[in-house]
Amino acid sequence: MSYQVLARKWRPRTFHELVGQEHVVRALTNALDRQRLHHAFLFTGTRGVGKTTIARILAKSLNCEVGVSSTPCGECSACREIDAGRFVDLIEVDAASRTKVDETRELLENVQYAPSRGRFKVYLIDEVHMFSNHSFNALLKTLEEPPPHVKFLLATTDPQRLPVTILSRCLQFSLKRLPSSMIVGYLSQVLAQEDIPH
Q1: 63: part of which helix (H) or strand (E)?
Q2: CA nearest 77: which of 59, 61, 65, 89?
Q3: Which residues lie across from 151 on neighbouring strands?
Q4: Is the pTM for the entire model greater than 0.85?
Q5: For site-directed labelling of 122, which of 6, 60, 84, 86 has its Cα 20 to 30 A away?
Q6: 166-188: b (≥16 Cβ within 10 Å) or e
Q7: Residues 105 and 138 sit within 8 Å (Cβ to Cβ)
């Protein structure tokens, strides 16, 4: 059996497993359970507060084979592949390493095509503030008239660097730092589960 980094092993896979960010979880679960889904979500906050984790759980909630809900089954092939980082219709992009406009255009040209396996084609763009102005313009055109089968999940540590035109087309969620007591409590749980003395 291969070793798995604890941070990856214990990364929350459902909204129920998340520690903190109750205001974000409440809003997203209500939207999912009432089928009131926006086409673009923006998660902001400092490093390590759960932006990417929440985005992946949201992608799973949108594409679970059981149906769109705030409680994905975790057992179907879509849920398992998203957890493993292998789901073909979840396109994860690190904007910091994809700053050229041609790369962004190429990525967004594929938006028009229907998902291969999932209900939605989900673009998770991390550190979106690193896009160039030309890349933002290319993204803006897609956000103005998104196909019904596409969802954008944007994450950034620096929302002030995003153009107002992008911000105004996204449902925004500001993630807060977790209090030390909450972090200590969660770490104690993990250490106990791993049978590591502390």
Answers
A1: helix 51-63
A2: 65
A3: 122
A4: yes
A5: 6
A6: beebbeebebeebeeeeeeeeee
A7: yes
- Among residues 149, 138, 154, 148, the alpha carbon closest in space to that of 106 is found at 138
Q: Does residue 24 register a pLDDT over 60?
A: yes
What pLDDT sits at residue 108? 81
> What is d(CA 9, CA 193) in angstroms, rounded to the nearest whole number?
12
pLDDT, tens only, 127-140: 999 998 888 998 99
Residue 99 pLDDT > 70: no
Rounded CA-CA distance 13/138 in Å is: 32
Cα angle 131, 42, 78; round to 5? 100
Between CA 168 and CA 57 the distance in angstroms is: 23
Query: What residues contact 181, with CB distance under 8 A and at least 6 apart?
Result: none
With bands split at pLDDT 50, 70 and 90, how would you rate the model's confidence at 8? confident
Burial of 123 (0-12, 13-18, 19+ CB in 10 A): buried
pLDDT for 1 beyond 80: no
Under DSSP, is residue 45 helix (H, G, I), strand (E, B) or coil? coil
* CA distance linking residue 164 with residue 178, whole number of Å: 28
Write out the H or E segment, with its range, that includes residue 166: helix 164-167
Alpha carbon distance, N-terminus to C-terminus of the chain: 25
Pair of tokens at residue 25: 């979880």
Encoding tokens for residue 163?
């153009």
